[in-house]
Amino acid sequence: MSTRNHFPKRYIITAAQAFGGGGKGTPNLVFLAGLKKYCEVRDAELVILPMAGSSVRELDLHPNLADRPEICFGSRPLNEKIAISDMVVPPQNVDPSSGRLRFPQRDKTLILAHPKQRLKAVPNSNYKIPKFLVSTGALTTPNYNEMNHRGDAAKRDHVYGALVVEIVGTDRYHFRHIRAGTNGAFVDLGIKFDGEKKPVPVVVEALVLGDIHVGDTDPVVRTANYQMIQIYHPKRLVLHDLFNGHSINHHNFGKLITRVQDIENGRANLAVELRQCYNELCEFAKAMGKGREVIVVACNHHQFLNRFLEEVRLMSDPLNAKTASRLMAPMVDGLDPVEVGLSMIGKIPKNVKFLDYDDDYKVRGVQLGSHGDKGMSGGRSSIRSREYAHGKSITGHSHTPEILRNTYIVGTSTFLRLPYTKGSASSWMNTNAILYDNGSVQLLNIIDGRWTT
Questions:
Q1: Residue 2 located in a structural domain
Q2: Separation of alpha carbons 120 and 443, rounded Å
Q3: What is the DSSP string of 9-74?
Q4: Which of 158, 173, 201 marks a domain boundary?
Q5: At what angle do helices 270-288 and 337-345 cross, to 10 degrees?
Q6: H or E stretch including 201?
């Protein structure tokens, strides 16, 4: 591999555990055939990273893999900003990123060979996009010592999968995971690869957009969001933080200079913000079309309006007092003031559904109805609390894409630098999620308006 190869260049990178006998560490032949078909169709290069087996003494790959030209030892740069790492991460490790997050700080995304798929963003600049620590998934059957608790847990978490990396230039790239079932079939960008069979389109059950925040949405990302709707035809569109709440933001309450700036920038009027939000919701509903749903998840930014009304801040905000006063009685009756406020602007499209905080919304066993701002039993939220609470899920809130086993977090649709992040090294990314009809999920990062080459 060379960083001087022609661009674009596509790789599909997986890992192989050492052979342990008795069916352990053997290649999933259908998956392998599918990877080869993928390379043929997508003009990609297959890379297989060897790993130890159930112990460090098991190092030899299965005979069907040992002499393959795709086997790659050591570290390899893919371009100046992303590389295959030679870091040794035992396959039994619960979290491949543990103790290693300092290494991508050196301004390079690192790919680790591991039978779990992990994605962890690492901020390394006050203005650049973050780097990532990302693990691959495996090509081979589980090979662990199941007589101890680490091996038993590792077998249960073992993933057939790979990482697609698309090199756009010397310092630009895209990446995304693919995950196969035990039958070896996998989906990438809406196309199913099943061994040597002809690739076919699949149904996209849901497209989950990065948090919207109307008023702070990046127009380039907004265009990409609508392009994804047109290309993948999802049955459901899931929206997080549609309403931003900048006009009544409690974080800015009592800040005179900030308030003057908001007034000068046209961001202080609740009625105007509700209209902007309503117009965007109608655009989403129109883009989805008849028979396809738009799901609006209950979110913390929507709660900005609840808090504004609960604290009766309209008494010191004459600009918004009239609009807010019309929302108080419905809120007393238990209605959502954001939904009521939008319905005051115009009729809510028939294919739009608002969720309450107590609602589940599961598709193919994946929880889509949680924003991610609430932890368990009133505690703080984290990716592990989301895993414990929901099992398989796609959530938002943190603006930082992440994968931990079957827990996925999308990014944001906003500008990556906002006033309240000034001076902070950021891990924010413009990242959406796609849920396919086989239950697999892909996170797609939008960079310069593109998520693939």
A1: no
A2: 12
A3: EEEEEEEEEPP-BTTBT-B-HHHHHHHHHHHHHHTEEEEEEEE--SSTT--PPPHHHHT-TTB--S
A4: 201
A5: 80
A6: strand 200-201
Verify that 261 and 395 share a domain, yes or no: yes
Structure-block tokens of residue 171? 């310092």
Give the SS3 label for residue 157. helix
Calculate mean pLDDT across residues 94-99. Answer: 93
Residues 269 and 190 in one domain: no
Handedness of CA 390, 395, 397, 403 (dihedral sign): positive
Q: Do residues 345 and 275 touch, judged by C-beta distance below 8 A?
A: yes
Contact by Cβ (8 Å): 16, 139: yes
- Full-model pTM: 0.95
- Tell me the C-alpha distance between 246 and 202, whole Å: 39
Is residue 126 predicted with pLDDT exceeding 80? no
In one-letter notation, the amino acid at residue 451 is W
CA 97 centroid distance within chain: 17
The two beta strands, 44-51 and 204-208, are unpaired
CATH number, domain with residue 431: 3.60.21
Percent of the chain's residues with pLDDT above 90: 87
DSSP strands (E only) in 220-300 = 236-239, 293-296
- Report yes or no: 78 and 39 within 8 Å, Cβ to Cβ: no
Show the CA angle centred on residue 83, arms to residues 81 and 85, nearest 5°: 140
